[in-house]
Structures are given as C-alpha cells and as structure tokens.
Protein 1
Amino acid sequence: MRGTEAAVEEALRRLEKTEPQIRAWVHVDADAARAEAGRAAEGPLQGVPFGVKDIIDVTGLPTECGSPLRRGRIAAADAWLVERLRGAGAVPLGKTVTTEFAYFQPGPTRNPHNVHHTPGGSSSGSAAAVAAGVVPLALGSQTAGSLTRPASFCGVAGYVAPVGAWPTTGFTGLSETLDAPGLLAAQVRDLASAVEAVDGTQTEEVGSPRVLLWPGTELADVEPKMLEALRRTGQALAAGELGDQVRTPLLADTHATVMAYEAARALAPEAEHPESLSGHLNQLIQRGRHTPTDEYEAALAVRRAARAEILHLLDDVDALLGPAAPGPAPHGLDATGTPILSRPWQLLGLPVVTVPGHRDLCGMPLGVQLIGHPDRVGRLLGIAQHTERAIKRNAG
C-alpha cells in the first residue's frame, strides 16, 4: 500500500464530498497534510493518508477526546504509533471522531452505509472515514469493543494489537491493562501492510488453518443473519466447534470489573467535573470508585488463569472465529451498540482481526472476528486474508 501527493489531494476531495453527511472528522489541516505529502519519508506507506482517532496525539493538532474538558489541548509530540507510520512515509490527514474518552457517549458520526445507523464506537470516525473511502488507513484503539465493533458495523477490516505489544505512548487511556492500539483499513491485505510497516510483522501464507467456531450466543442474542454468515465462513474454513472450553460469561463480567476500576483512576481528574461528563462515563467512574481493591485483584487472578488456559488452547489451534457484533449496526445515533462479544478477548489481551464481506438483507455489513495467539500475529493476519478471500467467493 503506497500513495502519492495525489493520494492526499484525493482524500481531501473525498472528505469534502462526504463529510456533510458522515461527520467523521473533528480536525483536518489540509495545508499541513499537503506539505507533508511532498516531503514524506520513503517507505512502504509513502504518501498514504491516514486518520487518527482523537484520543491519539499528533504534533500540533488538538487531542480533545470527544470532551469539553480537553477542548483546545494541543499535542506537543506524536504518539508512538503515529511516529511509526510517519517513519514509513504515511501522512496524517487529521483527527477523527471518538466517543467521549473512548467510552459510550456517541459523537456525531454516521454510518456510511446508512446515515440513520450508528457507526459503532468508540473508534467511530476512523471506521467511517475508511468506509466512506476518504482514507485507506485509520488509527483506533480498543478497551472493550471499540475497534472490532465499528469495523463490523462499517464493513471494514480491523486489527487490535495484543495488549502491551504496541506502546500506548501519546494515547489518552481508559484502562491501563486493557487499552490496545489498532488499525482500520478497507481490506485485510492493507491492514497487514500497515502492521508490517509498524513493527515488521510479516504475514504468513496459510492454506488450511486450524480454526474453532465460537457463536457467542452464551453472551448475546446473536441475530440469525450473523449466525448464518458465521456458519458459512466456518464451513469455508472447515472450522471445528469451540464448545464450552472458554468461560466467556465469566470473562465478560471480569472485564467489566477491571475496566471500571482502572477507568475511575485513569479519569480521576476529569471526575472532579461530573457536570462536564456524560451519564455513561459518570456511571462507569462511580462503579470503579465503589469496586473494592480485593475484588479488582480477584478479577486479575481470574484473568491470569483464563489467559493461561486460552494460550494453551491456541497452541493446538490457529484461531477462534466468532461474530464481531451481535448483528448489523443498530438504527439510531444515540447509542453505539454493545461490545459484549469483544470483552472476553480484550480481557485476555489477545490480537483480533475483524474480517468484512458479509451483508444482511438490507445491505448492512456483518463482520466476523478472528482471535489468535499474541505471539503469532503474522499467522493470524494470514488466516484473516484467507478468510476474506473465502467470504468473497461465497458472498451472499
């Protein structure tokens, strides 16, 4: 994936055309992007324009986190991930909409496939900007389902790095042991190119992956069309059944405990101004404040044991395949959908790739997610490319 100065101009033209309807961007510095495109470093992403979720710092641009409490805050340095992409020649076009502090309160962004539906959250602007064809690449993050869900709803590919694999330097965090950076792109191949540019991971060619099917029905009312898409994909991959080998309801509850406890501490300064926070965020902070430390430590112990179990399972299989969301993007813009199907895997710090390609009867996207071993990201990306090809062959 390489671009040119013309790629930045085309992105700006596309943005001007789509932004009145999609509202994916909070700040674009067109002159700076043009200037940087002219002197972009040589590299695998030379001249490729990208969007940056507005919890992630870009030198000289605001990082406002979807909150009036951060209005006008200008970043003095690039986040680690932005620096790596710039070093590969990519050009930041601007900042994309995030939900408030990457939690539940929606921003103004609309789903490019139907503007009356949510794009998901919290990486809403990044997913929508890619889906609208403005940029081929955008940065997001995930603490619960903040990247996987909007990727599914907007019909794009998404990658969540293993927790701790990529530094969160220059990110406004929500939960220090759950936050993970990630990427969104139109297709898995472009994701893989970007991941390689960031950390050198090379995608492995995969012929017959060993995959287990996880329908997620013990956690959510997964819609029939999503289950049918999952079934067809599983058949194409000759997937087996995961069964009850992973206690996902326990892990989802444990995730919620850890997230609330850590968010209350990460956002302690903001909590001093409850009138400037949404009800969603005030409730999360209050839950975290009232979670005893011994309950939090017990949750961490559950996570340690479960992670050991899942890594043992992933020594015998290559990936788990499940729904990325319970169904298509819900109608309405006052909520972003549930992250429940991502909570177990984010708790365990595993890499996840969202693979697009399926649609419901109304043409709305349905994404599936592949969950893999943190030490075998290249293989996971290879399986994701294999899966994407299989979906395209069997689209319906």
Protein 2
Amino acid sequence: MAQYDSPSEDFPDGTVLPQPVHAGTLITAIPALLGFVPESSLIVLAYRGDNTIIATMRYDLLLRADGRPRAELRSTIAGIGNLCREYGAEAIVAVIVDDRHRIQGPQYRTVLSLCERAFVGSGGMSAGLITAQVAEGQRWWAGHTGQSAGTPSPVRIPDSREGLIGDPRTSPTAVREAVTTGRRVLDCRDEMTTMLDPVTCDCHTCTRPRAIGDTDSGSLLRRVLVRLGDGQRCATDIGCTEAAMLATALTDLTVRDTLLALAVTDMRGDAETLWRALARRLTGSARASAASLLAHLHYIAGEGAYAAVALDTALDADPEWSL
C-alpha cells in the first residue's frame, strides 16, 4: 500500500522566506519538516508567490522493476497537481529521494516530467531535485531547474546544478523543531509506527469498554480530565480498572468529540501522551478511538506524517470506527 503523508505545515502560518533558499539547504531541512528521514519518496513543497510555504506532501515513489513510474504513481502525481491548485499554490518544488538508480538517470527525469505537466496549473514546477539519501555529505542534483516556471523560483540552484547535503539532524529547521515541539528527527517513518505498537496486559480483560459505575457522558468526561490533570503520574502507569474506565469513556462519542478540543489548549501535550499510551494499551474500538484522537491532535498541529500513522493504527484496530 502506498504511504501518503499530507498536508503538513513546514513553517508557522504566514512565514515568508526572505529570499530563495539554496537547494542543498532545502533538502537538508526536509527530514525536520517531515519528522523523519524519507526513503524511496517523492516530496512536494507548495508555495505562494511570496515564498510562503503552504504545505509539504510525501508519497511513496512507486517504480516498476525497470524504473518506470507505476500507474499508481502517475495517478498520484496528477492528484497532487489538483490538490496544489486547491491550495492556491503559485510555485512547486519536487524532491526525489531514492537510491535504486543513478540520480541523473532517466528514471527520475521521467518522474519529474510527469510532475512538470501536473503542476502547470499551479505556477509550474520551480525545481526538481534528486538525491539518493538525505544524509550529510550525500550528493544532490537538479534534474529540473524551473526555467519554464511562470514565477520566480523559491529555490536557488547553482550553475553546476549539484551540491552536497548537510547534516539533517543539526540543520536550523531541526533545531527549531526540537526547541518548539521537543521532537527529534526519526531515522525512518517506521519509527512512528513502532511508537504505537500494542502493549498487552496480563489479564487481557481490562482493555475493552465495559459497564462500570458512573457511565454517563458527563461523569466519564470529568474522570478523563482528572486523569489528564494529574501531571505527577506517568501516562503508562494505568491500572486495569482505570484502563476499563478510559476505554468506556473514549468510546462514548459525546466524550470523544469533546476531547478533540484539547488539541488547541494548553493540555495538548498531556493529551498527546495519554492518547498515545491508550492507543498502545487498549484494543478494538477503544484503541481506534484513542488513535483517532491522537491523529486529530497531530493533524491540527500540521504533523501530517504522525497523523497518517495514527489513522492507520485506528483503521487496523477497528475499520468500522468513524471519526
């Protein structure tokens, strides 16, 4: 299955880059923008005309054995073009990260040609950059310089059309993200999935919703908020009785929908910790509900990759659970 992480804000709303960014600097910043080091990926950055980044999108680079784009990738690129038009993008930069072929090989130029055609309605493709790996010292090459784009490029490409990538973990963007969100750059997207791996309880009976004392929505909501407000307790220190209560609360739609609002309050950090712990501890609909709350919280924060992984977890736990 193709993995799709979008949209995710790379900079706070309204941030305007004062001048075109060097291509190498942009590629070095991508892991911090996504939250992980991408592999076998097509990354698309959409800009407004004033160099404000609207969104960053990452997709699996689906190639056939001979290196030609698979039908799914062709369809995806066409869809990206439509999405960028809806965003009001006026310039687009495409970055290919893949090590299956030479970075100057025809396989990647074919992908960039598909992008160029798809992005005509959004100001054209300002640059198409290719690298085998986003790692310090890796070489990048510009397979497309954006000379046919309708607006000035937000990316500066040297005459040599190539350069070296810096350290993605110490880039200014990575440092900013670490300071403002506390998140480090993960080695790969799979690490996000591992963070939601189930944690089983020996009794195997406490992780599903069941009838407990006060089960009206108001009482359940108050009990969840009390749990969130107890900052001295570790979110993973959840006993069996409390796990059953929280499972019942999160599958009460009135409670669940009310808890969505925590994504934009000063309780956001505690909520993220608890939703993740419950998504790992609970099962079935309760796990799906906790993962859905986590996905919503990440989506509101513009953390598209984290949101996508949480949604996958929710769907795997209960395909019928609806947000």
